[in-house]
Amino acid sequence: MALTLITGVVVFELETLRNYQKKQGELILQNKAANQEKRKALERWQSFVDQKQKEKEEANHDGSSK
Questions:
Q1: What gap in Å lies between CA 4 and CA 15, rounded to an integer?
Q2: In angstroms, rounded to a whole number, what is the distance separating the alpha carbons of residues 43 and 9?
Q3: ∠ CA 36-37-42 to the nearest 5 degrees?
Q4: pLDDT of 11 over the 70 cut
Q5: DSSP at 65
Q6: Model's pTM, two decimal places?
Q7: Helices (H), the chain
Q8: Which pLDDT score is estimated for 61?
Q9: pLDDT per residue over 23-53, tens digit each?
Q10: Where are the coiled-coil regions (predicted)?
Q11: Cα distance between residue 30 and residue 32, in whole Å
Q12: Residue 45 to residue 53: CA distance in whole angstroms
């Protein structure tokens, strides 16, 4: 009787741990994907800022050479 109860508790704890680890793995993958998307967005933004800076420098250069 006591052994059956202990076995049941152990099985429950192992299932709980397995579910926790599975969910943790899913969250890690979601976080990695989100970070990759953020990185891509920052790279696009940096490219935009660099282009605007280049245009501004060219406009200043053209204005000063006239």
A1: 16
A2: 51
A3: 95
A4: yes
A5: H
A6: 0.64
A7: 2-65
A8: 85
A9: 999 999 999 999 999 999 999 999 999 999 9
A10: 17-62
A11: 5
A12: 12
